[in-house]
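Fold it.
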Amino acid sequence: MADLSSRNPDWWRQAVIYQVYPRSFADADGDGLGDLKGITQRLDHLGALGVDALWLSPFYPSELADGGYDVADHRDVDPRLGSLDDFDALVAEAHRLGLKVVVDLVPNHTSHQHPWFQEALRAGPGSAARERYVFRPGRGTRGELPPSDWQSVFGGSAWHRVADGEWYLHLFAAQQPDLNWDNEEVRADFRTTLRFWSDRGVDGFRVDVAHGLAKELTEPLRDIGGIGASGETALLRVPPGDHPYWDRDEVHEIYRDWRKVFDAYRPPRSAVAEAWVPGPRRALYARPDELGQAFNFEYLEAAWSAEELRRVITEELATARAAGAAATWVLSNHDVVRHHSRLMLPPGTDPGAWLLSGGHAPAVDREAGLRRGRAATLLMLALPGASYLYQGEELGLPEVADLPTEVLQDPIWEQTGHVRKGRDGCRVPLPWTADGASYGFGPGGAWLPQPPDFAAYAVAAQSGVEGSTLELYRTALRLRRKLLDGESLIWSTDSPEDVLDFSRCEGWRCVANLGTAAVAMPDGEVLLSSGPLPGDGKLPADTTVWLG
């Protein structure tokens, strides 16, 4: 059985990590915004669930121009969420419960409210303060045009002009100026940040936009033409490492430097890259002398197809093995439509357009979505490597696609001219009880409205209820700890076309029926099923079973 104890430096390789979006997890002070004390008070839920670690999305000082990813101070806590003392108490309680703590690190940019950026605005063109960021004069006869045609991920130009006429780079919101990682002061400051949180007991880091730090900043800046602003599609249109601001080879020097910091601790601090790059390039971030692990988004984006998922799983295991890393699996997070809804969208559906329709075009069968989502989860948890869960998926929460536009907080809504609704639908605060002003989220309301049917999904409504999604997760994680061993699988050679069938260690077998009709189930003791079994030896559609 895999050793996930605190003494094991490789605890992260096959861990189950639970992502907490702090503002939506639990609110202790009643202001409608989740906070650190609220998380601490609810950590027993994670202990009972059976996860190995929690990953905290940003809790730093922020004006929330991008949900907390616009950081004004990388070494402090937003006062609306608590204090450093509250953070220390959270870490202590997590460790008491046997949970590791992973924090989000946002190294590509700061908030425009960061003291460095405010200093840069005051200091003016040519100053050392501006060298920490990417400032450039504009093009055109009066500098009225952006320095290049680079585009923001959130829409529009990635350049914003300041009062003295210069422009600064922001690959995301205008309130998120990009740092200049050619500047040694920037590099030294982040080494300090890594040590600051590691010294406070943090066990690992999730690195936001890990593929975006290094940029080609030689003059004149190179236009990108029609290759796109972001994502793997843009990277596939240029030679590897040659995009002017995504996935440049120079970024790996930064992470090799960080690894020296991580390895100075006992056990070494872990890290995982958020890098939206093709598999062979992603493996570079996961090398042992760099971050050690990288998110596999191909699995999240795969259709509900046995053929496609078999290919994605096989490729990810090979990629991880080649890098000396562990595979990673994720179905939902704070940036995407929750998988209990997403997996039911017909092939070719644009999730953004579906959100814009309020979840009505096409309509999603919630019961069918929950059945498929449970099957997908049980399949994922049987795979070798680390699994990342997103808060609320253990309750079977669907996407809240019909949020009124007047309550939307995601800057994508405004920056795209109301063309993209954004990510608020997966960030609606969690329901803990079946009643109350915010279903137990806090003593008051919630910063995003919760739909009435959240009452049925509440922790209190599912806890101890046989067959509930919460109890399925608890049972699966308890069994997984007992069964887990090795980092490989063996595919069955005689499974039906729409079935994924593989064996792990000690006779543990996972069979998932992704087709539309029931199929004969292999012999073996049923350890766990994602849904009811009819008792006729058949495995229903959209159902996964573990056999022993």
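The longest helix spans residues 306-323.
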